[in-house]
Amino acid sequence: MDKRTVVIVGITGSIGTQALEVIQKINGFQVIAGTYHSNQKLAEQIANKFKIDKMIRTSEGYDEIISQIEKLRPDITIVAIPGFASLPITLKAIENSNRVLLASKEALVCGGWLVKNALKNSSTELLPVDSEHSALMQLLEDGTEKILLTCSGGALRDWNIDGLHDAKPTDVLRHPVWNMGHKITVDSATMVNKGFEVLEAYELFNIDVSKIEVLLHKEGLIHAGVFLKDGTMKLHMGFPDMKVPIAYALTYPKRDYSKMEWPDLSLVNLSFYPVDAKRYPAFFLAYEIAKDYAKRTAYNAADEVAVESFLSGKIKFTDINKVIERVLEKIDGTPRDLSDLTQLDKLARRLALEVIECL
Ligand code: MG
């Protein structure tokens, strides 16, 4: 049987390289193209090892990958780059692939309705590559009244709240549970990442945000849960390892990936705590803006600019919350298409830079 062809957008990143590890372990998939931002050395190693003809550098822009997706029409496109740029790529991938594995939350956060419209007009499947949403996909059934997303609380979860403003990038990048890219690791510490995930779940599963509960779960073993109307609760459990949801999305509805490691239940203590609004103010904003795509786009853009400024030492960790709050106050609008969203994204970035200048 012919192998299924795969294009990986963001092949040198955390999800991209883990997807390659999975593909190496299971049969039936051939990576035919990949994109990388700037890590040319790794891109060359990957191209040699996996015999990939097309490796596209995207630091200059995304036009080339968009036209390659149209030309190659892969069976599967894995979208695994951070940022707003993932939205147009996801839309193009839906048009031109049979299955899209979506690891970029921003596409749904900013353009959820555009992604869903594109899916309605095609037979393409979209599968989430996010541990919580992969778990939910496996748990959901008729009669689901409420869902649970868990979170780690990020690297600073045990810090005294008064000390947070002194946190350095090196402190924040030490994630207690998951090994991920820099942007998402900072987003875990502010819990903006979980805000994105609430919006992602709202879009993927058509469940109102008032029915999405988030609890802090330090052990990182329960990824999500559903509460059914007859009183049953189903929780999804397993070691935190992104290769598992990647493999599931690749091989769904089958499970071809073999890992054979499970938590030892006799040693496990599970704990759950409510999320502290003082410690994670930017997280709760996601609930307030859930129905407003202009503000959702601004939430993402302001966060991206603020995180970059924090990582380069320009602002303090706690300023990330301030930048997001102030930009959201200034943004208004009813975007109708991708071009409206692109304008809003640019505007929000400019406003974020202005706010940062005035801090
Ligand atoms: Mg997640």
Round the Cα radius of gyration to an integer and report it: 20 Å
How many domain units?
Answer: 3
Number of strands: 11
Regions with little confidence, pLDDT below 50 for 5+ residues: none
Taking all residues together, what is the mean pLDDT?
96
Helix content: 40-55%
Shape: globular
C-alpha termini separation? 60 Å
- Helices, by number, come to 14
Alpha-beta content class: alpha/beta
How would you portray this structure in words?
With 359 residues, this protein is α/β, with parallel strands linked by helices. It folds into three domains: 4-129, Rossmann fold (3-Layer(aba) Sandwich), CATH 3.40.50.720; 130-287, no CATH class; 292-359, Rna Polymerase Sigma Factor, Chain: A. It contains 14 helices and eleven strands. It has helices spanning 14-25, 40-49, 63-72, 86-96, 105-120, 131-139, 169-172, 182-190, 192-205, 243-251, 281-288, 293-311, 319-330, 338-358; strands spanning 4-9, 29-36, 54-57, 76-79, 99-102, 125-128, 144-151, 212-216, 222-228, 233-237, 273-274. It has a six-stranded parallel sheet, with helices on both faces. Strand 2, helix 2 and strand 3 form a beta-alpha-beta unit. Helix 3 (63-72) runs parallel beside helix 4 and helix 9 runs parallel beside helix 11 (281-288). The mean pLDDT is 96.
